Amino acid sequence: MSNDRVTSTPFTKGLGFFVLLGIALLIILGIFVSPADVNQGESVRIMYAHVPGAWLAYLAFVMTAVSSAAYLWKRTRSLTWDRIAGASAEVGVLFMGISLVTGSLWGRLTWGTYWTWDARLTTTAFLFVTYIGYLAVRGLGGTHQQRARRSAVLALLAVLEIPLVHFSVELWNTLHQEASVAGRGTDVEMNGLMLFTLFLGVVVFTLMYVWLVLHRQRSLMLEDMLDDSGLDHALSERRAEATQAGR
Amino acid sequence: MDDLGFIVASYVVTFVSVALYARGVLHRSRKAARDVPRDKRPWL
Amino acid sequence: MSESDSPDDIGTSPDSLDLSPREPSARQRRQRRPWLAMIVLLLVVAAGGVVLTKFLTSAIDYYCNVDEIGAKEGCEAGRRLRIQGIVDVGSVTDNATATEFSMSFGGVSLPVVYEGEPGGIFKECIPVVVHGILRDGVFNGDRIEVKHSNEYEAENPDRIVGETDKGSECSQ
């Protein structure tokens, strides 16, 4: 058995190739080709990692909620949904972390500070911490079904924070700027090449997300099967003992 | 330029953390797969 | 498997029930670590508490606009404020210890004295948030944050910076 092909398929391999290609292209466009901003200068280049990270984190958490709903609904109940939810939340936490760190660096350059407690930054920090909590709840133990039900309920509650985070910049005065692309206004006030680079960033992060979730979901399945087989093994041992003792 | 360090750092943080996470996932699956027969993996 | 010969009924007779701890088999040794999850969960609750406290102790609006001083709740003169305004053209003067400028918003202008050199991308015609106290009509700032807008425009190397903008109103 070839060990390096545990969770990969021809599809994920092809996807992986495009991910690497996309990352290379994003670095070239983001750091070298796209223009500097009239106000922010070179620091605007951090946007191409920061904004897609945040968007894909939102998407990952929404995906966690959708999969959790699919688990809770009796007709579609399957542990596969639970594992997709878990994998998606993990990747979401990773992307949110990336967005927080890159945002902090960007903030130091433009605002003059790494961190401040304005409504956007605070709600984002809270969202981040909530999903770390979600992952901890998944690790509390019990049967797979107990884990799935518990975390599914939590995921459906946690996803309600996302609109609060996204619209915090419009609800309150914040240091963080308002959304540039998915904001209330319909006009996008952005240079064409900048917008294209941002779009490429979103595509690259989406591909990374799919690759990571597919692999993580399969690795979670392997771990679940390992738990089950451990349980089977223990049961059969006990049965053997019991049969012996009964004679 | 001062900004350059910050910009490079943000790209490095982004892709290195994704790479480390991906490596961790592959490592964990490899460990778990030792005891799970190949015919039980629906994606193969 | 029929019910009668099923070995599942272990424990029905007291003699067959062995409650002594067993050596874990190799497979069982891969256990979940709930204690780790519980520690993480405790930390998460603590961190969530810190974030909430930070949020509740600072105003939900990060700043007051210049024209809201004395007009909006929480923006009373005399208390510590964070004021947002756009730096007026030609108003910035640096001397040895302080930076002086005026900023306006909504048609109201406010003179600011800031001890030190502002960081970030501070310049004219850009929105800034100044932390400090209003004394005798002058805002004494001790922290400046530059609030850049969500407009992104390519830097044009052919444009002569400062020449065309000078003396005119901020174009944005």
UniProtKB/TrEMBL annotation, chain A:
Kindly list the residue ranges recorded as spanning the membrane: 12-33, 53-73, 85-107, 119-140, 152-172, 192-214
Which GO molecular-function terms appear in the entry? heme binding; heme transmembrane transporter activity
- Keyword annotations: Cytochrome c-type biogenesis, Membrane, Transmembrane, Transmembrane helix
In the record, biological process GO terms are: cytochrome complex assembly
Q: Which residues form the Cytochrome c assembly protein domain?
A: 18-176
Principal localization?
membrane
Compartments reported by the entry: Membrane
Decide whether keyword rRNA-binding is in the record: no
A Pfam family cross-referenced in the UniProt record is Cytochrom_C_asm
Q: Listed GO cellular component terms?
A: plasma membrane
Into which family does the record put it? Answer: Belongs to the CcmC/CycZ/HelC family.
Q: What is this protein called?
A: Unannotated protein
Please give the organism. Answer: freshwater metagenome
TrEMBL record, chain B:
Q: Specify the protein name.
A: Unannotated protein
Record keywords, A-Z: Membrane, Transmembrane, Transmembrane helix
Q: Does the keyword Membrane apply?
A: yes
Question: Which organism is this entry from?
Answer: freshwater metagenome
Sequence intervals crossing the membrane? 6-26
Automatic annotation (TrEMBL), chain C:
GO terms for molecular function, please? heme binding; metal ion binding
Does the record carry Metal-binding as a key word?
Answer: yes
State the protein's name. Unannotated protein
What species is this protein from?
freshwater metagenome
The record's annotation in Gene3D superfamilies points to:
Nucleic acid-binding proteins
> Coiled coil located at which positions?
none
Q: Identify the GO cellular component terms for this protein.
A: plasma membrane
Q: Which UniProt keywords apply?
A: Cytochrome c-type biogenesis, Heme, Iron, Membrane, Metal-binding, Transmembrane, Transmembrane helix
Q: Which GO terms describe its biological process?
A: cytochrome complex assembly; protein-heme linkage
Q: Does the keyword Membrane apply?
A: yes
> Which subcellular locations apply to this protein?
Membrane
A Pfam entry, by short name: CcmE
Please give the start and end residues of each transmembrane region: 35-56
Assign the protein's first listed, main location to one coarse class.
membrane
Q: Where is this region: Disordered?
A: 1-28
